Description:
Shape: globular
Bound molecules: nicotinamide-adenine-dinucleotide
Helix content: 25-40%
CATH superfamily of the largest domain: Dihydrodipicolinate Reductase, domain 2
Number of domains: 2
CATH architecture of the largest domain: 2-Layer Sandwich
Radius of gyration: 21 Å
Largest sheet: 9 strands, mixed
Amino acid sequence: MGHRVTDSRVFRQRGAFAYLDDEDRYLSAQTSPDFKFGVIGCGMMGREHMRNTLLVGGASIGGIFDPTPKSIDHALKMLAKLQPSELPKTYGSLEEACADPDTDALIIATPNYTHLEVMRVATKTNKAIFLEKPIATSVTDAIEVCRLAANHRNIVRVGLQYRHKAVYAEAITEVLEQRNIGEVCSVNMLEHRFPFLDKVGQWNKFDEYTGGALVEKCCHYFDLINLFAGGIPEQVFASGSQAVNFKDFTHDNRRADGLDQAHVVINFDNGVIGAFSLCMFVPGSREELIVCGDAGRLHASEQALLGEQNQNRVELWTGENGVSRISTPSYPGYIANAGHHGSTFFEHVAFIEELATGEYRGPSLAEAFWSIAVGAAAQRSITERALVDLSDILPVGFDASSFSS
Ligand SMILES: NC(=O)c1ccc[n+]([C@@H]2O[C@H](COP(=O)([O-])OP(=O)(O)OC[C@H]3O[C@@H](n4cnc5c(N)ncnc54)[C@H](O)[C@@H]3O)[C@@H](O)[C@H]2O)c1
């Protein structure tokens, strides 16, 4: 990354050096941001994006839009502390937010089921767009989002930031860049965690609004499985159920219907096999990635009991091929604590770098599409109790490469 220690954001954090005159500032000199972002959707993730935008430092928050007054109030209070020199505009409508000539990019962090309709308005501008995952709740809508993105006059990036988690960034380096376990043969992932959190309007308790838990949350893991497998997913078999969570939960007279446990098996066109295990009634969170290659095995994990510090671990076995080792990859605390163990920070670094230089390394729209396609196939497999061929849920003649941006 080539970031010098003298440029560390620690020195530039407000407060500690507030007593200095500007002429005495060198390490703590403030730089003015080059870009302004408009944030659409100011709930949990919208605020995480605001925090990370300001922590990265290349952009300020020029304006915010959310139909829920409490979300706006909460975001304004946070920004009054983090961005005291600039009060963001509050827009009266999505159209107004998108049309603001003062912003360069839009961060869309609204509930899943709104992504397509928000994208239809956002792509009428020529602003860069950052869209939260999953890009849509169904394969059909995801194809439409990809089409909008491909025709957009600026970049469209997606929130599959788990690739930047310290343990997975290490795994990518070991497995895909340094090829330290040889040819990948199988990829296993596991997410065992606490239940879905409360949300504005509790949209995440209903498959209609999320696309199903295997689309909503697990698109992150299917993105990683697809990435390490290095092929196109062809067939999916899954079993799952709503075993424990929200069985007595109703909202607007509707019963929660999201599943909370699942096992998913994936066949890829290159012969690699993938598997995923989900459990959402655990008093903590544990993620695991196991990649087996013909020359070694990598096991990456992160875990925390509820309320406890996260622990990271990567174990590499290379036998007679080289050095086997165990490491505990990490980011500085102020980055890790900014959200999703630091991965959101590095997703913003990538977004700002692309705005500034045009160079980008990260998930494409096509990859975001496949992360949903596997989830949607798994949801269907559970409903139909049958193996699902991806070709059965894709339109005839579908060509994923035409969706990459
Ligand atoms: N990348 C990640 O790791 C990650 C983590 C959590 C959530 N997410 C995604 O972020 C998105 C938002 O989730 P959240 O957890 O912040 O939910 P949330 O319920 O906390 O916040 C959503 C906000 O969007 C607002 N909203 C609803 N419809 C809107 C519209 N049409 N225009 C503008 N604002 C609207 C709501 O009023 C609410 O304030 C979802 O797509 C979710 O899947 C991603």
